[in-house]
Design goal:
One of its GO terms (molecular function) is RNA 2',3'-cyclic 3'-phosphodiesterase activity. This is RNA 2',3'-cyclic phosphodiesterase. It catalyses: a 3'-end 2',3'-cyclophospho-ribonucleotide-RNA + H2O = a 3'-end 2'-phospho-ribonucleotide-RNA + H(+). Belongs to the 2H phosphoesterase superfamily. ThpR family. Its EC number is 3.1.4.58. The chain has 182 residues and is α+β, with helices and mostly antiparallel strands. It has a single domain, classed as Cyclic phosphodiesterase (Cyclic Phosphodiesterase, Chain: A). Helices cover 29% and strands 44% of the residues. The chain is built from 4 helices and 9 strands. The protein has a 5-stranded antiparallel sheet with strand order 2-6-5-4-7, sandwiched between helices. A 4-stranded antiparallel sheet has the order 3-1-8-9. The longest helix is centred in the first third of the chain and has 16 residues. The chain is globular.
Length: 182
């Protein structure tokens, strides 16, 4: 199974992201746009694992001593260039210092279970489209999109499975670690 650790989003955030995504889609020649049910903030991509490693990840999540929920908010639209295509995303702001601390703690507990640490700096975002080719520069589109910041409470970490169902990419929650517990 293919897994990753993520922060799931509430309906208000998902609905707002859908509006931004539709605007980008309108100004795209083509792209692979994220299904709204798959919007999330990745904390740690893990990849292919077996049942034994799945147990290790759950055990690692249980060792996280994080009992303070924190607030994030949606921000500007941006992109990561990939040759002539782009990965288009919505950035996150708010208590990003706490988000970065959570990322570091996750990296450490997962590393102790034998998983590799991330080589790249952590860059939290919500992907709304991959392999996007825009019909004009993103900067001009950014100036037109009315980004209304939406705040949301981060109160748990989810272990997600990435799989295909009837040809559709689906992210399923398979385990959660609540930040409301002591």
């Amino acid at each position: 199974m293919r897994v990753f650790l993520a922060i799931e989003l509430n309906e208000e955030v998902i609905d707002k992201l859908s509006v931004y995504q539709n605007y980008i889609r309108k100004h795209s020649i083509k792209g692979n746009f994220t299904d709204k049910d798959n919007f999330h903030i990745t904390i740690k991509f893990i990849g292919e694992i077996n049942e034994e490693k799945l147990k290790d990840i759950k055990d690692a999540m249980d060792t996280i001593r994080w009992n303070n929920p924190f607030v994030l908010r949606t921000e500007k639209i941006g992109c990561f260039p990939r040759k002539d295509k782009k990965i288009v995303w919505v950035g996150v702001g708010g208590e990003t210092d706490k988000l970065n601390s959570l990322f570091k703690e996750v990296e450490n507990v997962i590393y102790r279970k034998g998983f590799k640490k991330e080589d790249r700096p952590y860059s939290p975002h919500i992907t709304i489209g991959r392999e996007v080719i825009l019909n004009r520069p993103l900067e001009s589109i950014q100036n037109e999109v009315n980004i209304t910041s939406v705040q949301f409470l981060v109160k748990e970490l989810s272990l997600m499975e990435s799989c295909r169902e009837n040809g559709k990419l689906v992210y399923k929650t398979i385990y959660k670690k609540s930040f409301l517990e002591s």
